[in-house]
Amino acid sequence: MVKVSVIIPIYNVEKYLKRCLQSVVRQTYVDYEVICVNDCSPDNSQFIIDEYEKRYPQLVKSYINEENLGLGKTREVGINNSNGQYLMFIDSDDYIAPDYIETYYNAMQKGKYDVVIGGYTRDLEGKLKKHFAKHSIWSLATYPIACAKMYRKEFLLKNQVKFSTIRCGEDIYFSMALYCANPQYKVIDYCGYHYYYNRESITGSMNYEKNHEKFIVSIFNEFMENYDIYNLKIKDRKVIEYVYIANMVNALITYGHGGGKKRMKEKYEYWLNDMKNRFPEYKDNPYVGIMKPKGQTLKIKLGVGIIMKLEKIHCAKLLLYILALK
């Protein structure tokens, strides 16, 4: 049995797939397998997968979904066909450093960890920028990236940590499920995962969604159907509440910016109504503040802190309307 299973969901990425696979098969670590799952890709991705499977028959395995399942459920197909003790996810338009698997595996062996969390390097048309993960619980809760991590497979299966059926923001659901399972985790100062921005990919498609706030609501609807958050400790329940607020604020600012006052008004009212119904005590969240919570990224602290501070005096919509100006 291999130690590590690297799972790669594939859809419409023939332009980038060779770079991804080449980086994965050229690792300093040797005891691993590569599981490629084709999610009914309409391009020539399968020909590339077949090529690597023939060249590396002991390393690369491929599967083809009978129907298009989306990113999250395609990853689960990979999990169900994996043999490794540990799991890693790589998106097929991204790539990894040669010491990637070895670095995570060595970190995992230094304690009884269920997940090891690293940062990533953003590749924006060849311009590289490192983003280090924070050494705090927020790297579990509000760092919704399934990649750039190593998981103990037994822990995920035992706690039924799964992906959402919603085809946008699956990693948000997965990260909350992981947090609620209370894993032993370690954060490492390493950015060997190279995230390449690609609007045509499974993950990149969400960047152009005009109603991202509605996807957030759908994700939380599904999550709260499967997890009774009111059975959680108050601290953990407030963390989930904060995750909701942070993602909604991000949706309003990022996807409503420059969209016009009318559209922002619709988004804002939709969010406010849902938040009041879902989390009626949201104004008392102890993690919300201009420089709160400790260990959170500055961008999220400021975004959430300022909007929620203004919301208490009914002025948040004014700032959002200004941001929405074309």
From TrEMBL:
* Coiled-coil regions listed in the entry: none
Q: Which GO terms describe its molecular function?
A: hexosyltransferase activity
Q: Does the record carry Zinc as a key word?
A: no
Question: Out of the domains of life, which is the source?
Answer: Bacteria
Keywords from UniProt, A to Z, are: Transferase
Where the record annotates domain Glycosyltransferase 2-like, the positions are 5-142
Signal peptide start and end residues = none
Cite the Pfam families for this sequence. Glycos_transf_2 (PF00535)
PANTHER family linked: GLYCOSYLTRANSFERASE, UDP-GLCNAC:BETAGAL BETA-1,3-N-ACETYLGLUCOSAMINYLTRANSFERASE-LIKE PROTEIN 1
Its recorded name reads Glycosyltransferase family 2 protein
Native species: Dorea formicigenerans
